[in-house]
Amino acid sequence: MATKNVGTQDFEDWLPPNSETNQTCLETPNGSWIHIYQSAPWRAGVKDVGAPYLCVGTPGRLGNMMFTFASAVGIAALTKRTVVVLPTSPLLRHFRLQALVDCDGSRCSGERVVGVSEKKCCTFDPNMTSPRPKVRSLFIRKYMQSWRYFAQAEADVRRQMTAYGDTAARVSAVIARLRQELGGTVTLVGVHVRHGDIVRVARFREHGYRVPPVGYFLRAISFFAARHPRIAFLFSTDVKSYVQDTILPLCEQVQGGGPFFGRSGNASLKKATYVGVRCRQISTDDPVVDLLTLASCDHVIMSVGTFGWWAGWLAGGDVVYYNHPYRPKSTLWNSTKMEDFFPPGWIPMA
Hints:
The protein is of the alpha/beta class. It has helices at about 60-80, 155-160, 165-180, 195-200, 200-205, 215-225, 240-255, 285-295, 305-315, 330-335, 340, and strands at about 5, 25, 35, 55, 80-85, 100, 115, 135-140, 185-195, 230-235, 275-280, 300, 320, 345-350.
């Protein structure tokens, strides 16, 4: 079979170093093109039944792409369209997507494709669910960051957002190792601490993002610690030194003299006379593994943005979120309807 390599320029900024992107399409004997993952076992029922199509791009980083895809699944179910992803989508490497892959460009490019986008990134736009029966292919070009787009397709989205292969194995190994080290039945709370890019990159600050204060994490940790007698907090962050120096000591204070399990990583639980709160930093160089490790926890504390959002949504337990995520009057402030972005039942905290 011949191969057609598709560029990775759009997502190289977040993929881990030395990772294989696997963005390859294969030419079949009859001259058609299929994606390398087309024959995956979970895709056995995926067939091209023809137009109309709903095409999904790869806007932004991991959490943004997950939102766009999930929203497309929900909208396609409502409007009787078939979801199509581009062969460059990094999601294909990690998740059991049931979408078609547009290797030959016949579905998602050309004059018969109409681009669509919501009015505001983080506010539900009912116009996006309009059927538009005369349009062969719609192409979602923006972020679609509202749970309302896929509320009726939640089970399907969860199935497709399941990891496979090396990604699934790495996440399972991390969780298994942690549970063995922690011993017994322990409630795991994933904590996402976004800090570095907001501090370093002007456009994130100009857009309106705020860094949650240390006190927010302390209050969220205390909230869960008061409800679970045996609990461990697993921290994922883009700046390990920040968590090491400022957040982990807060766990030590919350546990009130119990064993501190995190800074050195060498504490022995067998020698501890009190088993209360324990804290570990689990950040790796792979954002997908980090997100799915957080999502494998029982509950989640998120900071700001979509990375922590998806960890919380996939985890399915209690989710605490920072309720002052944006600077007043900023772009994000004006673009976000809080009840459209945060699902009902999630817990706001300052």
